[in-house]
Every structure is written in structure tokens, then in C-alpha cells.
Amino acid sequence: MRELSLHILDIVQNSIEAGASEVILEINEDPDSDLFEMIIRDNGRGMTPEMVQGVTDPFVTTRTTRKVGLGIPLFHSAAEQAGGDLVVDSEVGKGTTIRANFSHKHIDRAPLGDMVGTILALLGSNPRMELVYRHRYKDKEFEFRTEDIRETLEDIEISHPMILGWIRNHLQDGLAEIYGGERE
Ligand SMILES: Nc1ncnc2c1ncn2[C@@H]1O[C@H](COP(=O)(O)OP(=O)(O)OP(=O)(O)O)[C@@H](O)[C@H]1O
Ligand SMILES: [Mg+2]
Question: What's 103's domain CATH number?
Fold first, then answer.
């Protein structure tokens, strides 16, 4: 079973390829109401209604090297296997939103995996992207915005090891705070 955070890497990669400068990643978890939801929103070039319709089908892709696009179909089946669904909402020239929901307690719901490592990997390879990462667990919320630290950085890249090191600690502390010692 593939960790769900790995799907995030794939889906955000699509956003980058679609020319997005901003990505908003939202995770909402509430075991008590069996909620586990992941939303990835971008301001990339978007898709036509026909593309949206076909995008969960593995034979739709604009890739030229390989005929089959797998990013969205794999995420889709991960959601379906765990009692959930995936919905793509997109508009040409505006952007795309992918919303996947799962049954939190479902035996086939893959673990979320390493969110700190995932965010660091995204920032390391896309230092100019504005990222918002909002994670809710029960009634607690953590939010990280690259915009907030960018002014302080002046001309240092966000991908500088020292900056990524600081972000790592910040994310670890933030997630520890919302989970409050509970692990999924
Ligand atoms: N965020 C997005 N914005 C615009 N177009 C998108 C976005 N995400 C996906 N698409 C379109 O949908 C197609 C299918 O995406 P999917 O991730 O399933 O496969 P892929 O990216 O083509 O290949 P793979 O992910 O397997 O490397 C993409 O080729 C692209 O044309
Ligand atoms: Mg892809």
C-alpha cells in the first residue's frame, strides 16, 4: 500500500507542469467522524471539461513519452479502495482542484506517511512556488505559508539547506502540536 503523501508529490507535480505558481494543500482529519480528506488546489492552466471527464481514466494524458497517465488514476483508486472518492474540478485559465476523500478508519486506507519530508521535497525542487499547507486534526489546525517566510529571506532561496532545516523543525513542531501525541 502506497503512502498517501506520495500521491501528493505526483499531484503537485501535475500542478507545476501546468505552470502553477501557487499550490494550496489542505488535509482534514477527524477520526471521530471518520473524515480523511486531501485537497490540492492550483492556479495552473486548468483543463477543459472533456479533459476533466477523462482524467481519472488511465488512458488520458498529454505526455508524449508514454501514452498512459497514472498520477490521478492511482490517487483515485487509493481513495475508492478506502471507501472514498476523488473529484477533479478545473477551469481553463484559472486552475485545478483535486479533492480526495477516504474513510479514516478504513482498513485499506493507506497511512498518510511523511508529510514533513513531502513538503521539504516539494520546496527543495520548486523554491519559487508559493505553497500553503493547511492541516486540520480534530479541532486543531496548523498552517504553513511560504509567503510568510519569503520576506524574511530577502535574496536567500527557500531551497537553501539552512532554510529547509528551519522549515523541517517548524513543520515537525506544528504537526506534533495538532496531533497532540495521537498517531494515525
Ligand atoms: N493540475 C493540473 N492542471 C492542468 N492539467 C492537469 C493537472 N493535473 C493533471 N492534468 C492533466 O491531466 C493529465 C493526466 O494527469 P496524470 O497525473 O494522471 O498523468 P500524467 O501527469 O500525464 O502522467 P504521470 O503522472 O503518470 O507521470 C496530464 O497529462 C495533464 O494533461
Ligand atoms: Mg501526473
Answer: 3.30.565.10
Q: Is 95 in the pocket of ligand 1 (CB under 6 A)?
A: no
Instruction: Confirm or reject: Cβ of 43 under 6 Å from ligand 1.
Output: no
Q: Are 104 and 152 in contact (CB under 8 A)?
A: no
Residue range(s) defining the domain that contains residue 92: 4-179
Query: E strands along the chain, which residues?
Result: 22-30, 35-42, 85-91, 95-103, 130-137, 140-145
**What pTM did the predictor assign?**
0.94
Within a domain: residue 58?
yes
pLDDT one digit per residue (tens) for the chain, 184 residues: 789 999 999 999 999 999 999 999 999 999 999 999 999 999 999 999 989 988 877 666 666 655 567 899 999 999 999 999 999 999 999 999 999 999 999 999 999 999 999 999 999 999 999 999 999 999 999 999 999 999 888 889 999 999 999 999 999 999 999 999 886 5
Is 40 inside a domain boundary? yes
Best probe residue, ligand 1, of 6, 55, 59, 96 (max atoms within 8 Å of C-beta) = 55
Q: Which three cell numbers stand for residue 85?
A: 472518492
Ligand 1 centre to CA of 72 (Å) is 7
Structural domain count, the chain:
1
| Type of residue at 72 | I
